[in-house]
UniProtKB/TrEMBL annotation:
GO terms for biological process: acetyl-CoA biosynthetic process from acetate. This is Acetyl-coenzyme A synthetase. Belongs to the ATP-dependent AMP-binding enzyme family. Residues 59-120 form the Acetyl-coenzyme A synthetase N-terminal domain. InterPro entries: Ac_CoA_lig, ACAS_N, AMP-bd_C, AMP-bd_C_sf, AMP-binding_CS, AMP-dep_synth/lig_dom, ANL_N_sf. It catalyses: acetate + ATP + CoA = acetyl-CoA + AMP + diphosphate. Gene3D superfamilies: 3.30.300.30, N-terminal domain of ligase-like.
């Protein structure tokens, strides 16, 4: 048995059996919280009984098999649950993950011939799902909606695929997609996949410069967009942004012949859209004229499926490349088990398809399972903070997957300023309690560590203390979930992503790259490969190796810190680039943030390190208060005391900086680079702030710097 297996086996000694009264109830009733580590939350008996993985025992059995015989484990799933035109060659997986032994190479199911669009649509239709709803679409404006069954979706996909072929898009060609959350976005992804084209979706919130940069990098045959979108009360003219990006990319020698534009009527009429004759084509004028069937382009499992650009800590965005077969098997399997998927589920993921979460868990993972998926165009707090629960009730959503940042912002919208405990949140969350939410069965969280207090609010208030939360840790690079609860299988601990998914071997290493055992913390790496792993950075295999495989030779380096507790649970502590070292104590920014946010009057916190004469680094905390709570010296002290109490005196913030809002990217990630500059008063070095969701918060922060 490897070390790793032993860690997971420690599960066997967990207080087992479902249905125990969770410690959580004690916590919300105001009893002292001993330690997060000891805070087990058990799935109910009813939930576990019906779950795909009903016990730690069952998990362990499958997990062991997946590690001892990955080829057998994954090829079993691949051949029984997917359609292959031709089976892969002798080797299920061939890999070199050690830079010391040559170029990094990962291949799964090589020689296998398939098509992911066929597996999402045709295969499910043949299996009897033709009339099942594939997509429910909810407009930004309450009351406007649409839906497509699996067979209707296939017809739409085929029409677009045929159009793309007619303008010369072939297997291997790149297609840039700059669309908001309309049904046309998953339709476009699937149409590209059907003909073997490589989609590169750019989140329709990126600036024209960022879009141009991506166009120049991947040189697409066509750009697909829409004229405008409404997000909340604002209308955003996407086509204008694309126009500017195309001017910019032409300057860099890349000119685009066709810009296919969908008329998003509810946002902007055709007549008011700027137009370049000869290049711009209305989707509605051409696509519906094409046949509703389209032959599939059969591709190799290792042919590219998509490129998705993601930012690194330095340099230009990296084009993460995923291929077809392994990604297909992995996203489908992770979706099924981590959400305990049942055919009757209605699934809603609030992520945009412009991010990896939207690729793997709006489009491919759910569709491969034949699921009914809700796609929501707008913002979660429009027209008010109850919108999510309105949508949940309207479509009887059973699985709701979102990000901690949304949970915290909705939690903050409780109307009572003086929340004194989690129980009071329960009583004062009218935006939530106004709706029934009784269809909900499983909740999910992704994007950053979810702090235990937000976890509790999500669990108690949103889920009525009845729905397990799958806190899924993964990355653009990993393609799918890596460390995640399997709801029903084992007790959760609020804030812990728990245990690895099948086939995943997380290891924690020290600075020297030595694996550390037992209860420990360090850098999170992964040993071995899994089918959903990215294969390269587009056009820069060297950077791929340097960033991910050279820091700790022999392992994939995630860039995240992680600790493992005495029960083998994994606690992600944030990017290691964000680790602060105070007087020799290593402190994860996420730990301090979590402590601050547990203060009833703190809505959100972001912590960065600043130079400190004596301690090396000091802790600088930006704090957003619950609506209506005034800043005060007393509160400042009380926040610092909370951190001292929860982590230790060494972790007490040196500075609390009042923050009406935090600088976030449009996907909700806090831009720490900017906070670090503000904290160190290097105000002339803020850099590019145009990618922020609300650039105005920067000025507000500067104004409050010394108050
Ligand atoms: C899926 C996604 C990846 C980074 C990752 C980590 C953070 C994501 C998390 C989490 C703690 C979770 N992250 N999920 N941290 N718990 N459940 O977000 O991909 O945009 O590439 O970000 O996000 O730091 O390294 P991506």
């Amino acid at each position: 048995t490897t070390n790793h297996l032993r860690h997971v086996e420690s599960m066997a000694s967990l207080p087992s059996g479902a249905g125990k009264i969770s410690h959580l109830n004690a916590v919300i009733l105001g009893e002292a919280l001993a330690s997060e580590e000891n805070d087990f939350v058990f799935p109910s008996d009813d939930f576990s009984r019906q779950a795909l993985i009903p016990s730690p025992h069952k998990y362990l059995e499958m997990y062991k098999r997946s590690i001892e015989d990955p080829a057998g484990f994954w090829s079993g799933i691949a051949s029984s649950e997917f359609y292959w035109k031709q089976k892969w060659g002798d080797q299920v997986c061939s890999e070199n993950l050690d830079v010391r032994k040559g170029d990094i190479k990962i291949e799964w199911f090589k020689g296998g011939i398939t098509n992911i669009c066929y597996n999402c649509l045709d295969r499910n239709i043949d299996a009897g799902l033709a009339d099942k709803i594939a997509l429910y679409w909810e407009s930004n404006e309450p009351g406007f909606d649409a839906h497509l069954t699996y067979s209707q979706l296939l017809r739409r996909v085929c029409q677009l695929a045929n159009y793309l072929k007619s303008i010369g898009v072939r297997k291997g060609d790149a297609v840039i997609v700059y669309l908001p959350m309309l049904m046309e976005l998953p339709i476009t992804m699937l149409a590209c996949a059907r003909i073997g084209a490589v989609h590169s979706v750019v989140f329709a919130g990126f600036s024209s410069e960022s879009l141009a940069q991506r166009i120049v990098d991947c040189k697409p045959k066509v750009v697909i967009t829409c004229n405008a979108v409404k997000r909340g009360p604002k209308t955003i003219h996407l086509k204008d942004i694309v126009d500017a990006a195309l001017v910019e990319s032409a300057k860099n020698g890349i000119s685009i012949d066709v810009c296919l534009t969908y008329e998003n009527q509810s946002a902007l009429k055709k007549e008011s859209t700027k137009w370049q004759e000869g290049r711009d084509v209305w989707w509605e004028d051409v696509v519906p004229k094409y046949p509703t069937t389209c032959d599939v382009e059969w591709v190799d499992a290792e042919d590219p499926l998509f490129l998705l650009y993601t930012s690194g800590s330095t340099g230009k965005p990296k084009g993460v490349l995923h291929t077809t077969g392994g990604y297909m098997v992995y996203t489908a399997t992770t979706f099924k088990y981590a959400f305990d998927y049942k055919e009757s589920d209605v699934y809603w993921c609030t992520a945009d398809c412009g991010w990896i979460t939207g690729h793997s868990y709006v489009t491919y993972g759910p569709m491969l399972n034949g699921a009914t998926v809700v796609v929501y165009e707008g913002t979660p707090n429009y027209p008010d903070s109850g919108r999510c629960w309105d949508i949940v009730d309207k479509y009887k959503v059973t699985i709701f997957y979102t990000a901690p940042t949304l949970v915290r912002s909705l939690m903050r919208d409780g109307d009572e300023a003086s929340c004194i405990s989690n129980l009071v949140y329960t009583l004062k969350s009218p935006y939530v309690t106004r709706y029934s939410r009784k269809s909900l069965r499983v909740l999910g969280s992704v994007g950053e560590p979810i702090n235990p207090s937000a976890w509790r609010w999500f669990f108690n208030v949103v889920g009525g203390s009845r729905c397990p939360i799958s806190d899924t840790w993964w990355q653009t690079e990993t393609g799918g979930f890596m460390i995640t609860p399997l709801p029903g299988a084992w007790p959760q601990k609020p804030g812990s992503a728990t245990f690895p998914f099948f086939g995943v071997q997380p290891v924690i290493v020290d600075e020297k790259g030595t694996e550390i055992d037992g209860e420990c913390s360090g850098y999170l790496c992964v040993k071995g490969s899994w089918p959903g792993a990215f294969r390269t950075l587009y056009g820069d295999h060297e950077r791929y190796e340097t960033t991910y495989f050279r820091p700790f030779p022999g392992y994939y380096f995630t860039g995240d810190g992680c600790s493992r507790d005495k029960d083998g649970y994994h606690w992600l502590t944030g990017r290691v680039d964000d680790v602060i070292n105070v007087s020799g104590h290593r402190i994860g920014t996420a730990e301090v943030e979590s402590a601050l946010v547990s203060h009833p009057q703190c809505a959100e916190a972001a912590v960065v390190g600043v130079e400190h004469e004596v301690k090396g680094q000091g802790i600088y905390a930006f704090v957003t208060l619950v609506e209506g709570v005034p800043y005060s010296e007393e509160l400042r002290k009380s926040l610092i005391l909370t951190v001292r109490n929860q982590i230790g005196a060494f972790a007490a913030p040196d500075k609390i900086h009042w923050a009406p809002g935090l600088p976030k990217t449009r996907s909700g990630k806090i831009m720490r680079r900017i906070l670090r500059k503000i904290a160190s008063r290097q105000l002339d070095e803020l850099g590019d702030i145009s990618t922020l969701a609300e650039p105005g918060v920067v000025d507000q922060l500067i104004a409050l710097a010394d108050s």
